[in-house]
Structures are given as structure tokens and as C-alpha cells.
Amino acid sequence: ELTVLSPQSGVRSVQAGAVVLAMGARERTAGAIRLPGERPAGVWTAGAAQRLVNLHGLLPGRRVLILGSGDIGLIMSTRAENE
Fold it and tell me: How many domains does the chain have?
């Protein structure tokens, strides 16, 4: 479960099997974007999720929440929907 804040819908809870972070021009570490812990379970960077799908044919989860609006976020959302 993830708590989300947006100008359009305010604060709400979202349930997802996996979360793909696709928020910038380059990937940053979990610490750089203030995610606590070594490797939060079910949280993937866009590049890591893309490698998992492209190289291993696996999806990071059945229910996916993608944060971001760049090309890789769009690619991953399309891929997750079609798989």
C-alpha cells in the first residue's frame, strides 16, 4: 500500500503489487530520493524494471503503479498492460 499526494485528488492510498519509479532523466539511488532501507520490497527503478522485462521476460508484479511521465514510464505502463 502506498500513500499518494497529488494536486488533483489530494491524499489517497493506492494498492499495487509493484511500484516503478520513472521520474527523471537518470536513475538515482533509493537514498537519493529518500526511500528508506536497503531495497524496499516491490519498489523498482524504471531501468531495473525494464531489464527484468526485456532480459528475463518477467514483470515486476501483476498490479503495477508507475510514478513519472517520461518515455520510459509510458513504455513500461504499455508493456505492463500488454503482458
Answer: 1
Residue 32 within a domain: yes
State residue 11's pLDDT score. 92
What DSSP string describes 31-78? TTTT--SSS-TTEEEHHHHHHHHHHH---S-SSEEEE--SHHHHHHHH
Could you tell me the pTM of the whole model? 0.49
Range of the domain at 51: 15-82
pLDDT digits (tens, 9 = 90+) for 19-28: 776 665 566 6
